[in-house]
Amino acid sequence: MGGSFPYAVPPAVAGSSSSGLLPASTTIQRPSNDGTGNFRVICRYSHMNYDDSIVYPGQAGRAHLHTYFGNTASDAASSPASLLASGNSTCGGIANRSSYWVPSVINASNQAVVPIWNMVYYKSGYQGVAPSQISSTLPNGLKIIAGSALATSAQTAPARWACADSGGAYTPEQYSIPACQPGDTLKMHIQFPQCWDGINLDSADHKSHMAYGTGGVGCPSSHRVALPAISYNIDFPVGAAGTTGWKLASDTYLNGPGSTSPGGYSLHADIIIAWDPAVSSQWLNNCTRSNADCHVGVISDTQQIG
Asked: Which helix (DSSP H) or strand (DSSP E) does residue 277 occupy?
């Protein structure tokens, strides 16, 4: 899965050391357009490293190259406690010190592509879970993984790719990196499971404590606690050569000579939740647990983050 360093690591950014809390630029839309509860936060690029504090805790350099958003101090040694207490944030401010990461996107010149942003959604009304069923608290320290780093062919719905042109028109979504044109934006989307067992912040396989809900059913009886449906929506700039030959750092199936498979099948994502509870409780109750659209960063009618 890792253990070598074939790609140069782009410079990190400083992030913000302020809380990020500001007067709201708009009020919450009640009701939302579709009966769901919506909160979104923009997280800018933070840094890259060859670490993974969920899969390889304390083993610096053990993983493939990852791209991080949020907590600027996130590395192999990070724990839920250290993330809550330290590091700046690229998600508007340190009211959100969560760590969000994905395998790095590598272009045809074997260079890691620095993303534009990650729009992180915390929503309800999906996976069969109504807004009112969402937990009123967000468990700090919860570790969640979506998708598989070992995938060598198309995964199911949680992981998708698309291109968007300068006018905002999207190509159909697919499970590998599409052929985007120069000047386009490559869109990466991945959906996390939202049903928690209510006890464990992690599990031996890093997945068993979480489950996906299903339409018409919601959360299974083994994972009764419904959390917000979290998704990453990450944009990457496409240069003059387009996306031909692009891949993920985790696409080990492309390491052999003469491989013609498309890149991006191994799309997966990780999160360690580290929110200021006084802030997360506001957007949970005002946005995600209500039939309300809080736009980007708005946590109440008077306050927003970022």
From this structure: helix 277-283
